Fold each of these.
Amino acid sequence: MRRAVWPGKAFPLGPTWDGNGTNFSLFSENATHVELCLFDEATTEERIAVRQQTAHNWHVYLPGVGPGQRYGYRVDGAWEPAAGHRFNPAKLVIDPYAKAIEGPIAFDRARTLAYCAGDENARDAEDSAPAIPRCVVIDDSFDWEGDLRLERPWAETVIYELHVKGFTQRMPGVREDLRGTYAGLASDAAIAHLRDLGVTAVELLPVHHIADEDILVERGLTNYWGYSTIGFFAPHAGYAATGTRGEQVREFKGMVKALHRAGIEVILDVVYNHTAEGSHLGPTLSFKGVDNASYYRLQPDDPRHYMDFTGTGNSLNPVHPSVLRLIMDSLRYFAVACHVDGFRFDLASALARELYDVDRLSAFFDVIHQDPVLSQVKLIAEPWDVGPGGYQVGNFPILWSEWNGMYRDTIRDFWREHTAVAEFARRFTGSSDLYQADGRHPSASVNFVTCHDGFTLRDLVSYDRKHNEANLEGNRDGTDDNRSWNCGVEGETDDPVINELRDRQTRNFLATLLLAQGTPMLLAGDELRRTQRGNNNAYCQDNELSWVDWELDERARGILEFTKRLLRLRAEHPVFRRAAFLTGEARQGSGAPDIWWFRPDGRRMTQSDWTRGDAFALGAFLNGAEIPTLAADGEPIVDESFIVLFNAWREPVTFVLPPTRFGRRWAHELCTAQPELPANGTTLPARATVPVEGHALRVLRRTG
């Protein structure tokens, strides 16, 4: 029986089911022939010539084709690698706009390289279809039951960076068949932990469909972190418990809805700077075969090779309008159709490059800023790439927050006695030197001490050298972290003195992170003392080395309770999460400034104090009376004021409290050296002395 084929429409791109049939549209500016390939359950392939072109979009409508239909494309055109064209119809390619992709690349079943072995100039004739997962037509409908993006204010946001699989793979209380999946993250047990902890947003490591690199497959490893995207519209099928024929989309949406019901926002870590296809010698999976010269940034004087600002072999080309549209369409799809609350852009500087340099006025920023949807979601940049001039911390425009690498480095240095207190004070108070001049707020600084890339917090205080042997690269991958702090003993130990020092330093990092101005980001498992046994580049470790361990010993339970205590303190007191930068000045009629830094003797820090290389102890007065808030009945509430005493020095330091104009009496709130001490103990008068142990932090609350 001959299939009915209609011309269809150029937009929207990708497959669109209307209840009667499906419209398919594929962008390729340089192709000469396109075939849509339909597959049945027995993998029998039916090829349909796509003859209609509109604005370089190849389109066709097929009546009777609907959800669950498996498909791919074969695209023909010039085979001229030296000119940047790599068309090969023998290679089945994934639709860049596919909303569901069945599964992994089966590199062992067919050649995915478009060129012949030993001769990259010769086009390979072997069919790659046995190796390539099928795209799937889906039904986009979903009962959201009134769900909307939460739009939580930045000043109230606490981010928790997690891996969808690793977070629940070993979690008790999650059904075994749901562990490591979107449904697992939506489970009561997972959500209960997030709510009890006190975080307000989860930042998910990449969930766009992932393709493992063939070299990892050969080693028996996978790209666990997922920074190897091949489908910018498709939730990764490997994280679905319910199925991979479109069910993964419904499960992903259900996860978002469940988290929203718990008051938790969903932020996606997105990788639009490169794809899984690697360098010019890498496989042909999608973009390379659809239109290599359009989708990728090629060397102007040698288009055989890619410009590589990412260290992965290629860079996507957002300068091309159709590629920029792909990125924007992907973002809008997840924001509108999937209700995602925000995005963290991996190696965002690569997207901001116009011709070569990073450009704050690039088309990428312009399009996002004028978009009525994307300009209203949370936008977070990883403000660097590996190209020249790629380190751009503080240089992204208004509307953007940034992972603040300077905060991370400074806080680590301070607690190991390696940085001036002036730099520490700038980072603790929101990095106004980076974000204030262009009209941004403290929330623009996403503060973190650890993230997925590097040591966990437990390993940061336990190792001073990387131990990446499990990656099978001879421990050459990753970088030695010269800002770790291990008390002079490498690795795990049974020494109770060393372990107490390590736990104290862990509490110091957590307290400095969660009480600082800006937006804190906590790495999943740090509150549980999760270890990767010294591996600081566990990108390929999909196993217990990376998964969160929920079997907690007494030390882990202590760190967990201390983290909850810090997050409650932050949530209850706006003084720790101000919407505006601190000025150091008193409001009219007020007796004290909004912040006042002082030496251990209780006197104000002087210029010479700020520049001393041996000063590692100082106090901060935080004036809660400067930021009155309204209760539910509209009555003003004046927040309490606090003093934070920092002692990064190895020996105890005795502080003198400030004079009475800052407060007449002070009560203990918490101490990293004595975490068991409850709040609201005996009060101390102004000018009283307060001992602070070596490598410790103490918080006092004003009571009069």
Amino acid sequence: MSAKQYYVRNHKKTERNFIPASDIAEYLANLAGHGDKTMFVWKEKGERHEITYTDFTDEVRRFSLGLSETFAGESKDKVRISVIGETSPRWFASYLAIIAAGFTAVPMDKELAISEISNFFSFAGINAVVYSPSFNEPMEQIAVGHPSLRLLIPLKAPDTDAAPGLNRLSFDDILALGQECGREFEPDTDRERVTELLFTSGTTGSSKCVMLCQRNIFSMMNSACETVPFRPDDVLISVLPLHHTYELGATFMAGCNYGMTICINESLRYLMREFQEYKPTGMVLVPLFVTTMYKKILAEAKKAGKDKILTGATKAAHALSRIGVDMSRKLFGDVRDSFGGNLEKIVSGGAPLNPELIQIFETFGISIYEGYGITECSPLVAVTPYYKRKPGSVGPAVPCCEARIADGTVDENGFEVGEIQVKGENVMVGYMNNEEANENAFTEDGWYRTGDLGHMDSDGYITITGRLKSVIVLDNGKNVFPEEIEEYLADIDLIAEAVVVGREEEDGVKLTALIFPNYAKYPEMQENDFRAEIQKRITALNKKLPSFKQIHKLEFRKTEFEKTTTRKIKRHLVK
């Protein structure tokens, strides 16, 4: 089959239970339309707080007006305001208010080193920054002598005065300016202007600055609402960092457009307690959290001496489901109760998920829907439809875009594997101040090169198989995608983390597994025992794999691999 022949057929149109929004003005009108319904629930030092949609949108309006008053007389396209800190309603309100004022919002990763944040501020020309209390001192350190940063906006006013020469107005100060300014609130409706700057995580190299416009953001948001099985009466728990476009777009933007109630996780150590209090019906997660939830289920079952019963019941429930008999609530009431009793759906994205977990959670009565996205696509590209799921696939392209497989080659299973390329309303404006990267990012006919490899079936369902930059080319011409081998290694419980690389040996490139053993789970084991048993397991694994996919060498390490804040291993740093 020739390259670029496959095109994804978009999701079926279904009855909508949400109102689409094409820009920030329509979006805020949708939020206001949910009235006095609870929008956010969160805790500060154990004390519970809530805010309604009416009160939240009023806060966005006043803060946006206050920003317009603060930067009155300046060219709007030159005003760039960063938001950084822990997830909170005011973080989200600040983001929306910046966009509504016609300025550019720049979400920033709170886990970055202060020097990196300062450098990103300089690169993007950040004029002001909104930040949580944990950044009170760091932001003042950055601001001293900074070439562009000239206004500090703490979400809560610090007890101390600002350092001499620094300009600081608290969130409440800006709100007061907006209340008193007398300006009409007219949210910006220019769908093509650069509205948001996002720094990529850098997992495939040096970070780039992605430029998104309102068309990108809201086409993606509408597609998320149209393709995921959520309802206005759903309750979500937010656990992922809000600076990441996956959480910002899929949980907050889409969830609030529906009119859901979003409960913000105070700390991961309180998550199981929050399940009982908030009783969520859905969650948006990365695979690491799904795996952690399953391990928690197994650990509790083992503690109660019911692990064998759980395994048997899972197999029985799966067999019964094939003939249309749903025994999930009867067989797994305790499992469901541990997550609050109401959890029924999870959207997973950001990395591949073991298809077996989808099947297992289905027997518990919890459906998992895999999605696929990339920051440069705002980020949603595809999601498996709720009406026709295929475990292992991330589904067809969402309504705002189409995707194709380009420059493919047929693999041993007969699939044409090639680069996934995307074209549509969600694809970025481009990279800021990086013409070379822009030229490399797009094909001559205007398709965005994701750098991800995959194949499609006749229904247009995408299956991710690896990344172009991580593919290992063997001397015999065979291509090996290390992510596939790493999934097998992840099933070995003695291994906490593994990365597969190609090492140049005298007789050619050999697959090498870099292993971080699961010391935490087996503290009683000695180092030599770890190595011997892992080698034994991998020898057994090799017998099941084609010769060119077999692991020839092991390298052990004492520390975890360096990761991004969304818990992806920074592959480019692995030596």
Amino acid sequence: MRVLAVYRRVLANRDLSRLMFGEFVSSIGDWLYLVALLIVIYEQAADPVVLGIVGAARVLPYILLSIPAGIAADRLDRRLILLVTDVARGLIMVGMAAVVTLGGPVELIVVLAIVATCFSAFFSPAIGSYIPALVRDESELGPANSTWSGLDNLAFVIGPAVAGILIGFGGLTMAFLLNAASFAIVAVVLWGLPSSRAGDRSAARAGSSATAEVSDDPAGDAARLSVRAAIRPITMPLLALTVLNVVGAFVAGGLGVLTVVLAVDVLRSGDAGTGLLNAAVGAGGLLGALVSSALVLRRRLAPPLIIGGLAFAGSVLILGQARSLGAAMLALVVASAGALLVEVIGTTLFQRIVPDEIRGRVIGAMETLSVTAYAAGSFLIPVLAVTLGPDPVLAASGLLVAVSIGIAVPLLGRHAVQRPARDALRERLLHVPVLAGMPPARLEAAMAQLAVIPMAAGQVIIRQGEPADRFYVIAEGSVEVTQHMVDGRPERVLRRMATEDVFGEIGLLSGGRRTATVTALGSGTLLALEGAAFLELVGSGPGLTSRLLDLHRGATPMAATGA
């Protein structure tokens, strides 16, 4: 029941669920397009070498452009990057449809495919940095990544199936047009989503363990934070995640090609066997997404990381011993599920560990390494399998995965443990004196909507004159409330507040602007409730509005007009 409640909460995040729906539709279109592209090129060129060249050419943009794409994701609006790339790729798909319909040269199709991949290279750093900005706090990161991976694997199953049906009826042109339509859908979705820049307040609200903090000058903070200074304290866990990504990509790249060798030369099942082995990979991905949906909720993520890694490693080793199609398919299902579990946990840890200000650049660098490793595995593992035989090569691949897990887990250390459960922090709302007597159901509903925000000494939480947008509860720490006087007198201290005190209610209840500035006196944690949710809570409690308005009266003549 807890798992269902967590995922209901994630789906209730309107912006996040809309993004996932749009990208799911786009992923189906991408797989549909890829199948159609390979068929068009092979039909017109009639040469497998051309397919290999196209495959290599589609990898190069990721290697060359992922780092610039990461820099762009840290300096520009991530939503805008996604929007531009989707619109551009949609237009390219329309161009491809026109070339196919008019019988244009295959060289032009190849050029358009490479240009489309250049835009795709900007997608991963942008989406990887954008998702943490949409989750309401750190507790939603794991479920969001698990949901994302599940939908992506479902698209892997649906896309090629739809492509097969369309192409069976001679609809190659329609395949490109449908992909263009999928880009149009996700572009409309993105248009209605909030902007996100590195270090802005939306990223702080996401609860990143490294940088989720309130700042009155996020752009300045981002500028002051150098990449080297930001990476230094997270070097070991970042190295661990890099090892997992590179090794996983290397082995996955090899398996993607090796399925053909296994099906044809070892299992003697021909082209049908190749299709079934690839279907097993897709089924394993869905299974892995399902398993990760529960395991990623654990506070300690090292055990499920080990489980996923060992499942991946052991199944790859067993695959080399399989002498029947059924056994090979089962091994690939488990291997794919284990690899997906490692990927989801690794992504979740990455989003917790890496500061938002440099997240795009780090994703770009890791994407370059991963794609290079994937390409190397796609070439080396099949070549070695033909030379030495698949059994020792698969055994060595499984051992390599196991070793990467053995290296990564100790390097992750405490970073593999989630900070104190957010539910425990949110329960502080139940102990706030001014909310005593509120209906339990309403308090529970409000708890589910609370954002958990770390604060550091000297940070301005709210500033006098700003629009009132949130209500705050001090879960840990203390703050000072000050006010600039209209008659030119020096700023005065109204009061100091500590754990279980509240502020920000006056501006929301009056519908005006902040009438005081609230500054953190030390490190601590705040619980924040959006204005609409706060007013809904207030409306359900008889007399609560009056209690809140009277809360600070008597402390100082100006306190009633506090924040």
Amino acid sequence: MALFPSRDRRAAEAIAELTYSNPFRERRIELEHAALGADYDGRVPPWNQRGELIDDHPNIVRLVAKGRAIVDAARAALRAGRRGDERERSIYEDLVVFLSYYDWRERFEFDPDDVARRARSSRRRHKLAAEFEAYLASYLGPEVVGDDASIDVIETAAHLLACFYQVNRAFRSIFRCIIGVSRPTARFRAEVWESIFTRDLRRYRTSLYRSMSDIVTLVTGPSGSGKELAARAIGLSRYIPLDRSTGAFDEPGGVDVADSFYPLNLSALSPTLIESELFGHRRGAFTGAIADRAGWFEECPALGTIFLDEIGELDPAIQVKLLRVLQSRTFQRIGESRERRFRGKLVAATNRDLVRAMRDGELREDFYYRLCADMIEAPSLASRVADDPQELETLVRFVAGRLLPGVDGALAAEVADETLRFVRERLGLDYAWPGNVRELEQVVRNVLVRGSYRPVPAATESDEAGSLAAAMRDCSITADALLRRYCAIAYRKLGSLEETGRVLDLDRRTVRGKVGG
């Protein structure tokens, strides 16, 4: 006999599918609608595109209630000896996974800013594994589904809890790091989710959770668009196993998960310093190396994440050394031959067109093809506001609230209103936002301090050349500043460091240093 009555079959299938769906894709809402049917509330906005967590969203509340009713009825049928077919038993197991997440998520809520709460939660977890095993056995034990269909509850429970803890951290970290209501923002969140879990969460749960750290994630997009925030969300969302004996999640190398993200801006360092920071060095390896030093690749724990910003600016010699880490996850400190192993995950970011850089000879092909396994593109602020003007207000109010923490919320709201009024009246709603979200943050600060903001005027080549010529006539510019500005003009016109160096008869690295300066 069938395990699910015909009236519940469609809802059961929809809930089973959404259990493993990307929560930030439109498909998730379609499945909620299919599961709830006439009970779906279309008057409220979809929760996964609002840019905020709504635990009491009416459709989520109704979905959990419906899933519970279907599971309880199916469990009673199983206890009565009605086994159903293999497909129905698989759906039943998926429904149990769905229900158990909502029944247990409060036991491991994650807030990266609330260290005290996480510590209290950790102390309460000593019975977590055993309690969850009993819970899971009540749905999937042999007395319910039979000996042939029952699972190894002890092994499954610890791993399932670890997956729940990861899903909870990823869900909250993505919402916390990527703010907005537009479709480009929703797509951005969905892509970050897939960088953590892949497009198939079921496959991730069964096997891929072991090997995702081997895949490099590359975040591209314009400067100031939130690439580091996406990387941080990924870093905070690593799989952390549950120690069944203690009921505690095995934090990376004893480091709190919120502190296991290690960012490094490569463009701010010389090649020698980059090597030392990443790989470490032996005493005496170079002038100033007065002691042995471990680099970030060595210090990073197995469940930690290293974020390399401006990866497109790396010198080719460093690209070769980093390529070895990407290929074999091994490296050597500067000045020694001992091979060491990188155990964590690597996330990189750039605002450059790496394909063009590769074609121009500035980026090694083998290096590029080791970086492009998992690529995310951060949308520009202009594209987000063009899709949904509400995006601007959402971001301004978020920035104002973060800028004025611990004070009367009315003050943050007042500053946000003043900023929005200034943008509408002085910049215009079609403002291009060349500095993206980073510029928006400065607009809020400028309005708070001075009541206004002066955007950088879009300079033309003739403006730049005329300004430079005037500075030369007045003898008001140093030789270094002259070369720097001339290199910048030539680079923008010629499009590549290689060509700029050839035309100006300068070493490519000299050009890069002047342009970057």
